[in-house]
Design a protein that fits this description.
By secondary structure, the chain is mainly β. The chain is 5% helix and 37% strand.
Amino acid sequence: MSRTRYQIIFAAVAVLAAAGAVRFVVSSEATTGRNAAQEAEPTGNLGDGELAAPGENGGAAAFVELDQAGNAPSDRPLVVRLAEGSLTGVTVEDPQGQGLAGDLTADGLAWQSSEPPVPHTAYTVRVSAMAPDQQPFDQTLNVTSGPPSAWLKATLTPNDNEVVGIGMPAVVAFNRAVAPADRPAVEQRLAVTTNPPVEGDWRWITPSRLHWRPATYWQPGTEVGVRSDLRNLKVGDAWGADERTISFKIGPARVSTVDVATYQMTSSENGQVVKVMPASMGSNKWPTHHGIHLVLEKSKSVTMDSSTVGIPRNGPGGYYRKVAWATRLTWSGEFIHAAPWSQWAQGKRNVSHGCINVSTANAKWFYDFAQRGDIVEVVNSPKKPKLYDPGTSDWNIPWEQWKAGDTAT
């Protein structure tokens, strides 16, 4: 029997969300004068609700599962199936010749890729099969993968070309959480380069945020480059979206020490003290967090609301007020800011809710002095730092511990 007596029919199978939805089959090629699509009727060992156009004399039919839009879904493996006969080989390649690996099922009726196809990619599917009468045949099908159900996107910090302090980590924040099993693959898509070279490593601070920091504070003048390339990376039910790069430079070594016991803040630049100012830190009820903080951002005016930290505005210790010259140290709400109402206590007592209160003139001075990534170290406070807060997560973890594992769970 000649090979032309068989036709292979590739099915665009619409995978519909509704229960019991019919899956339609589209013929890619016919070798007889008949219109196979017009003669479509159920045949072979297909699933419930599937329709197939039979080949001549009940010839073999092959199927590639597609979505409603006619694309190969990118959130599950690509599947090629036969209604009858047996597959002997399937290859799937993108335009660059990159193959999509997969395996035949034991019964030879199906082939499934090991991973989903990359979104928005054209693939050539080449099928070799054996018809029921043991006649071999080959066919080629061109399919395109659709969009993913979700994208994994990265935001890099600091800003491109920004000058930052000696404590500033390279930060990659994602738009969705990354499971622990996927984190090594994500880290492999991230790179940090420095001039001069320094030792450093990544650590996950939260499930959607990781930092790269050197073993010790940066040296002023160090140039840093950060690259994230998530393209074609499958992470859980999402696909990596794009490639991003930034570069930044380390500025002067500005370090401020806040001593809870002496009620003073001492600021230095490159090892030289430039200013000492009286301050009032958190009271015994609401102490300031101990440890090394980073300057995260600065605002000329911030509205502080005690309800955001669990203290009712109208209850004991509650507040809702606008403060000037605010330099943020943690995302949990610690700032260095102007507090003219507590100037009587500055240098004498700790009366704040955890912030570092200074005079308006001193707050303005520090606002102008500080750069993102500067070190502010709080000493002699009984309250431990929060290791999941970006303001206190980097330098309160010893280097060997930093390299050993993630903070995030």
